[in-house]
Write a structure and sequence with these properties.
With 397 residues, the chain is an alpha/beta fold. The chain has twelve helices and ten strands. Helix content is 34%, strand content 15%.
């Protein structure tokens, strides 16, 4: 253990405890009993010094709190970013590190782990692991085993292999998580992940929307998609018009108000009663008709009732097994001669998902052309890490 461990008393990770864990994966084959004995050695070295004997066990390595190990990951990430900044001659970002690795320059990054025996398949994977580890932890993922820090378990039970994920990024392939987002402060997705996990665990795929909006009203949660403005892909596309419009999963009402301002007689619905109430409070006197409704069991009178239907990132908020049912329901809202606009996050077929949301694949976008709807212009929009769809469908008159 001494040969693969760098004790760093300048980096506290617990109540006066400081250590740098062995490189990811080194301990994955250590039997539990031996891991416990090693924990005693650590206790003696870092805590005992003059008080604990090796026969005592003040703590086991596996007993260190999740927050302690998370701080180690944060430290490793910062060291990698500092090494990248030194190489580039300017402040570096996560995406800068990814670009360096893809360009084959991982060996040029000087950081402490480079001097240790490394169990990772390539230097690029080694460099990227702390970045993905921190990003996934902030989405609610945790390590299943303290020492085997190669696999993370998400709040919805999905498993992510860090080495495989980093190797995918090293090859320049889509890796399905935003490393370029804000990496300081509170994670905007944390509340949605937490509530979705709890709701789905009880077999309720939509109940978490109400809890999220209700808690947001009291300041106890953040609605990650609430930008307090209509979606820019909608404002670019929509023009003044007339007829009836329906906004699916309207949230706090910004998209619905935009359509009403363009001249549409607008109906906006959400499964969350709190969302509907908050939208009405935000826009008193609005001409939009806000109402509570369930996309999976919509009012029958909405069938073929709208000239324009706008679906923005609602289907992707549902678990994948419900996508087909939700897509079919949305298509049914469009009347003859009407149009459906779909805006969604995208991913490749079989691409990684760190849900929620469950971004839509090309085949799922194509599935909106159902029940007589015909596909119009489908835009596959790429901007750095982000992959979005903007697709229009029409029902012949």
């Amino acid at each position: 253990m001494a040969e693969v461990t760098d004790w760093d008393t300048a980096q506290p990770i617990g109540d006066g405890v400081a250590l740098m864990p062995v490189p990811s994966g080194v301990m994955s084959t250590v039997p539990p009993k031996l891991a416990t004995r090693l924990g005693k050695v650590v206790s003696h070295k870092l805590i005992g010094r003059g008080g604990f004997a090796l026969g005592m066990r003040p703590f086991r390595m596996a007993d260190l709190p999740v927050e302690a190990w998370a701080r180690v990951g944060e430290y490793q990430r910062e060291v990698v970013l500092e090494a990248a900044a030194k190489l580039l001659g300017r402040e570096a970002t996560n995406l800068d590190v990814v670009e360096l690795v893809v360009a084959g320059r991982a060996n040029e990054l000087e950081w402490w782990h480079k001097e240790q025996p490394c169990p990772h398949p390539t230097p690029g994977v080694c460099v990227l692991l702390p970045l993905f580890d921190v990003a996934l932890r902030r989405k609610g993922y945790v390590h299943e085993h303290t020492f085997a820090q190669r696999e993370l378990v998400g709040p919805l039970g999905d498993r992510v292999g860090l080495v495989e994920l980093a190797a995918k990024a090293e090859r320049g392939e889509p890796y399905g998580i935003l490393l370029g987002g804000l990496m300081t402060g509170r994670d905007a997705d944390a509340d949605a992940n937490r509530l979705a996990a709890e709701s789905l665990a009880h077999g309720d795929p939509t109940g978490w929307f109400e809890r999220l909006y209700a808690e947001s009203a009291s300041g106890d949660a953040i609605v990650p998609w609430d930008s307090r403005s209509p979606h820019f892909l909608l404002t670019e596309w929509a023009h003044p018009g007339h007829g009836r419009a329906l906004v699916v999963g309207a949230g706090l009402g910004d998209d619905a108000e935009h359509l009403a301002g363009l001249g549409y007689e607008t109906v906006a619905f959400d499964v969350s009663e709190s969302a509907v109430r908050l939208a009405q409070e935000r826009f008193p006197g609005s001409e939009v008709r806000y109402q509570v409704a369930d996309l999976l069991a919509p009012p029958p009178e909405w069938r073929h009732a709208f000239d324009l239907v706008v679906e923005i990132m609602t289907v992707q908020a549902l678990p994948e097994p419900l996508h087909g049912r939700a897509i079919a329901a949305i298509a049914e809202f469009v009347r003859p001669g009407g149009t459906l606009l779909v805006i969604a996050s995208g991913r490749e077929e079989g691409g990684p998902v760190f849900a929620p949301p469950w971004p839509l694949t090309p085949s799922e976008i194509g599935a909106f052309a159902t029940g007589g709807l015909e596909s119009g212009k489908v835009e596959d929009l790429r901007d750095g890490e982000r992959h979005r769809w903007r697709a229009a469908f029409h029902r012949p008159a």
